[in-house]
Amino acid sequence: MSAQLDQVLAQAANDPDVIETQEWLDALEAVIETEGPERAHYLMERMVDLARRRGAQIPFSSNTAYVNTIPAHMGEHCPGDLEIEERLRSWMRWNAMAMVVKANRLDGDLGGHLSSFASLANMLGIGFNHFWHAPSENHGGDLLYIQGHSSPGIYARAFLEGRLTEEQLLHFRREVDGNGLSSYPHPKLMPDFWQFPTVSMGLGPLMAIYQARFLKYLHARSIADTANRKVWAFCGDGEMDEPESMGAIGMAGRERLDNLVIVVNCNLQRLDGPVRGNGKIIQELESDFRGAGWNVVKVIWGAGWDDLLARDKEGILQRVMMETVDGEYQNYKAKDGAFVRKHFFGKHPKLLELVSKMSDDDIWHLTRGGHDPHKIYAAFKVAQEHKGQPTVLLVKSIKGYGFGKSGEARNTAHNTKKLDDEAIKAMRDRFQLPISDEQLPSVPFFKPADDTPEMQYLHARRKALGGYLPQRRQKADEVLVVPELSAFKGALEPTAEGREISTTQAYVRILNTLLRDPSLGQRVVPIMVDESRTFGMEGLFRQIGIFSQVGQLYEPVDKDQVMYYREDKAGQILQEGINEAGGMSSWIAAATSYSTNNRVMIPFYTYYSMFGLQRIGDLAWAAGDMRARGFLLGGTAGRTTLNGEGLQHEDGHSHVLASTIPNCVPYDPTFSHEVAVIMHDGLRRMVTNQEDVFYYLTLMNENYSHPGLKEGQEEGIIKGLYLLQEGGKKNKQRVQLMGSGTILREVIEGAALLASDWGVDADVWSAPSFTLLARDGQDVERWNMLHPTDTPRVAHITQCLQGTSGPIIVSTDYMRTFAEQTRAFVPAGRTFKVLGTDGFGRSDTRAKLREFFEVNRYYVAVAALKALADEGKIKASVVADAITKYGINPDKPNPVTQ
Description:
By secondary structure, the protein is of the alpha/beta class. It folds into five domains: 1-54, no CATH class; 82-302 and 367-465, 3-Layer(aba) Sandwich (Rossmann fold), CATH 3.40.50.970; 303-365; 485-698, Rossmann fold, CATH 3.40.50; 721-886, Rossmann fold (3-Layer(aba) Sandwich), CATH 3.40.50. The strands form four sheets. The protein has a six-stranded parallel sheet with strand order 9-6-10-11-13-12, sandwiched between helices. The chain has a five-stranded parallel sheet with strand order 1-2-3-5-4, with helices on both faces. Strands 14-16-15-17-18 form a five-stranded mixed sheet. Strand 12, helix 28 and strand 13 (694-698) form a beta-alpha-beta unit. Its cofactor is Mg(2+); thiamine diphosphate.
């Protein structure tokens, strides 16, 4: 017996007044019997409060005993035919195993995971058979974030349902030639099947929380009836170490998201070994979630333990359960009943006596709660009906359940993807599959006839719940009308003489126009992360309000001002606080609403560009996987624009990151008319055409005048390049200058210097998207390679430049890589020089920063002159003269190294 247990028992034995203690316990028991547990809880809380106010030091604990939250006599039993359900689960386990094993016998590098579904099968089966509704006339449908590594089991179920073919199962993780099944839940690859991607790990719980809040948002604003819908998210206990998994549980509790259920599959293992070998992950998570305001339900022990716990009058079994660490529990399930008897029940003589009439086999078959259908059903029922709080189910299971010595509860279980013949035979026998010994070497799939009782039951259960899951809607049924481009007249016209605005202000004007639009206005979802005032958007507070489920319970300190901080039950703004991951998760929920809710929403998430794609890159990639549609706005963009904030705030690479997401359409506009044309094109593609793309626009906080849209520029803006300003024609030498964002203005000034100081004419090109130019060029290059006998196609940037003359000089507020991606598509033989802001940012004036990074007008002019000199068109001494004239220090350190 351990010293800790000895101490606990000694304290009980040294009770100074056993009779008084029993009287208190009897009184409490009477209250529970006559008035219910709620009354008993209230009285206990009052007593604890009184004791603390009288000076008693009563420590706080958010933990309960290491037993099931729902007492045995209160748990609702599963109403289904459990014999049939068990057979169906066994067949799904077998087919999931066969799918992965077959794939790896063909090619051992394909990988796959068997153990996660093995531990989850009972939970998923109860959910699919009794709880989760598909979209139908009577129900909007539940939303499932399925644990990513359990995908083989989901495919196995869909195979029995007739939704997937044997050929598809044979192509697990082989998608290139068609008919394949993706490794994990990927809507991009299986657009009519998976609802949400849940890997990388941690993203599922985070996105599920904001998805649940978005359902509340839609309901409060009368856009969709979501009152009876639930969001269910399944994740592993090891996955809860990801900061994203736990980072938003406080918001869920604060917002009382009772439409949210997170199921943590506590099989005690992650890839390398135990999750908490020296501790207890269930107790740890219980404390975290309960402290965050969640309803916590623990499902630890199967029904076989109920009798033992009931006969444990002294509470010794409960204390040993609490004392035993997870590393020990894992070891027990990797051994046998005799080992459990000796090392678990052997911790106290009375426990050995408690199980004295049980055989080792009986002890071995004492199940964990995650493998007991009745315990799972009771917990799911509580979660479904609970009001006022989100619910987390902490369900204890065995990783690799059913694999025996080949992987059950072992440190290697996570990566189990290959089973030898002996292990396959053992699994066949354990789950009583009707497969002969002769068939075993081929590991055949098993699917009974459609008229068997099991198959009829399977289909009947899903019919009762509205249809099959998972399923995904690819397009919304509704049609929204996008206004004409002319609706953005204020942004399309030149700024008035003497008036200067930023592209951020132009964007806000466009957003206000959309908010007033009769078709789109109510579908616009402005999303902020505590930077509304930075971007001049605080006027929206009073205009459309900030969404709050409780409204505004206080009088705002600025109530007497025009733009006061107004929270409202039907508010339109989602204000996420200082929380970029939360803002992106809300954006994803809105950007995929066409699929999840059959309602087209138009989210605009505005943030500091440096804190966008860099910080939430994994979520942005997931958004691409989910076929999200909406606008991401990176404000104060560029490495020299947010001049006072310095290194950690200045963005010179978000466009490089954006270029890596294939369905992200990125732009770096300079002028308000470009912003308007790009946003209108985005609305056309995402709302009218329902294309699965999303737009990323960088915006600047620098004020200047804007030239307005000229006829015929729209197509070039959308494609990424157009002639903004044609140079003079009186000089012999000519260059092509190109830029984007705020540095395009330096390029314009550089053209003026070349003409006035050096007699060089310059055409000025605006390049709102180097990334789109590069993608177009790559597409053309590929087409030409694969169609060698056809007339070659010509990339847009090539078409624009091939009729021009002179070197091509590019300057942007981003790393050189941003513009360098177009080099291959510049007309052959042309000099192409790129200036960029490589290196760390720093604080100073905009002018000094542009000088430091060598992207200002003077460097543009010098780069153009040097290119002409290299081509032998002017003397090198002219370049030296320009360097002297503009006060450039030729020996200053390279900014990349500073």
